[in-house]
Amino acid sequence: MKILAITTLIALSTLTFASVKSANAQVTSNSSICVSPIIVKGNVTYVSLALTRAKNLARQAAEKVNGGLSKYRAEASMYGPSFEAPCVDDGNNTWTFTFTGSKPGSTTPSVKTIVTVAKDGSEVTVDYNSPISKVN
What's 23's DSSP letter? Predict the structure, then answer.
């Protein structure tokens, strides 16, 4: 029982620290408006396990509708920290993620996907999934 409790504590700590951003780190223009900064002892942090879960659910939904990981990879921001996720807080207990993806190994995005995820993770909806049209 003690081993299970310690393992759970380590896993939760790892998830929490993976979602923390130091105030000294540079915030990119892709920073999500889905996470509000929290000031803890003078440091600004961005912590949201729910957003991390929602981001993963959105990415997994896109992977599924695009044929799986052997045929599709979402853009890098969908694998990184939750505060970099390209999302909008819809104000109705959902987040909407808008991102691109491509064939594994490709550097050119070929698919645009929009996924809405309930903040509690109970509902995931692929709102849009379509090839990106090429402009001549």
Answer: T
